[in-house]
Amino acid sequence: FVPISGWHGYNMLEPSTKMPWFKGWLVERKEGKGEGKCLIEALDAILPPARPTDKALRLPLQDVYKIGGIGTVPVGRVETGILKPGTIVFFVPANITTEVKTVEMHHDPLQQAVPAHSDGF
Q: Domain Translation elongation factor EFTu-like spans what residues (predicted)?
């Protein structure tokens, strides 16, 4: 819990004297301890999730585009695994299987897509 006032900017970027009752926050985890008083410190203390490349491919679809002369282009973000051209993918719940022909990010071709990439294929 981090009390703030976005309207007045209290306790967002630096500790506020307007909240003397708030002594700060503390989080303990196996990676170490994090503590602070304001919102920016709490946001900086968030650890990014593990996105393993050695697990099965998991790619939630964000959208599917039909592009003339190209074909159907699914777009999504890789959460785990690696997506490469030639990979056979299986879409659930539609139960559709297809082969990845290309992988692109913002119209730039890629050899592979890794976790945290938003890609079209």
A: 71-115
